[in-house]
Amino acid sequence: MMARSETTGGPAPELEVLRLPSDQDATGRSLGAEEIERLRSVIAAGVLTATKGVQTRELETRVAELTGRHHALACSSGTAAVHTAIAALDLEPGDEVVTTSITDMGALAPILYQGAIPVFADVDPATGMITPETVAAVHSERTRAVVVTHLFGVPAAVDTIAASLPGATALVEDCAQAFLAQRAGRLVGTFGIGACFSTQQGKHITTGEGGLVTSDDDAFARRARVFVNKAWPYGEADADHEFLALNYRTTELQSAVANAQLDKLMTGVERRRSTVARFASAIAGVPGVSFPAVGAGDVATWWKVPLLVDHAVVPGGPRAVATALATRGVASAPRYIQKPAFACRVFREQRTFGSSRWPFTLARPEAVDYSPERFAGTYSYLDQVLVVPWNERYEPEHADAVAAAIAAVVDELRQA
User: Fold this and answer.
1) Dihedral pair phi/psi, residue 187, rounded to 5°
2) Bridge partners, 196 (sequence order)
3) CB burial class (10 A; 0-12, 13-18, 19+) of residue 269?
4) Per-residue DSSP letters for 264-287?
5) Rg of the chain over all Cα atoms, to the nearest angstrom
6) At what angle do helices 33-45 and 252-282 cross, to 10 degrees?
7) 8, 27, 311, 356: which could join 21 in a potential S-S bond, CB 3.0 to 4.6 Å?
8) Residue-wise pLDDT tens digits, 26-36
9) Whose CA is closest to 295, among 179, 377, 188?
């Protein structure tokens, strides 16, 4: 039966269901003839392993140049990149690594696999990212590293975090969502001893799965390269398996796609920035919806767009908005992640290796205290945030349509 209008008694206008590009398929990705041609050359050569091919060497050289770092290393996934960076620090069992409560498990499991203890810092309720103050609140004499995650392509306060750390504490940046983002006029990924990037399906450039580690530190870079090769230093005299490590190598097929994607990265980032700027302007007057602030001198490259929805202004908050947007063909994710990382069973029940609970058995009680009152910013951010997908295939009309849908939904919820 056709719906009827409450105001006129006549048929209610049908909702326009949008057809938006998606980064989960070809509609929202820049894949094309360039990737196919590079893949064709790899297949023709018959060399698919990164240890003997040319595509991976080219990729690493180009990424080092792009990021302004002395070293770049390609590996099999973003998780592998984080694991490689943590392993390159050569931590002792029970050492602590301060990280964020709002991140993917792929950025946390590597810490546990290296026998270290992830210690969660609270986040700024306006950005969802750690700050110098929240890091200082959990930093201890056992802290050996801090991982700073740049969420959604918005740079974290990595410069002030770096300046606040004791000299013995290493800084690693998780730039998986932040290709070419800048903090204080400087590329993210250049503030610490190492940085990790991802080329997973939905990232700024994609190879399906893939990761990159960059660094200016020679010793860190060597250990990282050896780690992804089962601790075998290819090309060195008297080579041997030097320490416990894995095979995290990429393939020439992944690197071929990555090289073609790198050619398109700048254009894709500029498209994201211009369409998101248009979107931000269009929703500026929507009651109860806040666009993320980007600091002076900072450049956000917008993996996705995190909006804050005020429950006091918009009844039902982000969940109600997301439900109504879905009927209009606009996907969105209230909360981004459904619970803080420390609330997952691996941390809550310390489920690691068999029934051993290792390395949690080495932890200070304070390091594994996940009491909600310690994470007010985390719970506040998750309660407010609504993540709107974005990609390099969005045109200005897509930005306008998504903004109009959000404005209409908020208006309906406020009048209900």
Assistant:
1) -60, 135
2) 174, 213
3) buried
4) HHHHHHHHHHHHHHHHHHHTTT-T
5) 23
6) 170
7) 27
8) 999 999 999 99
9) 188
Task: Kindly tell me the burial class for residue 214, based on how many C-beta atoms sit within 10 Å of its own C-beta (0-12, 13-18, 19 or more).
Answer: buried
* Of 138, 143, 82, 136, nearest in space to 114 by CA: 82
Q: Is the pTM of this model over 0.90?
A: yes
The band of 1, judged by pLDDT with boundaries at 50, 70 and 90, is very low
Give me the residue label for tokens 């200016």.
Answer: 216
Q: Token pair for residue 358?
A: 């290792």
Q: Which two tokens stand for residue 36?
A: 């196919």
Question: CB neighbours (10 Å) of residue 244?
Answer: 10
Number of H helices, E strands in the chain: 12, 13
| Mean pLDDT, rounded, for 156-161 | 98
Select from 121, 153, 126 the least CA-distant residue to 139: 121
Q: Is the pLDDT of residue 20 over 80?
A: yes
Say whether pLDDT at 13 is over 60: no
User: What is the residue-wise DSSP string for 89-137?
Assistant: T-PPTT-EEEEESSS-GGGTHHHHHTT-EEEEEP--TTTSS--HHHHHH
Rounded CA-CA distance 381/19 in Å is 29
Contact 117, 95 (CB under 8 A): yes
**Token digits of residue 43:** 């297949």
Rounded distance, CA 119 to CA 139, Å? 8
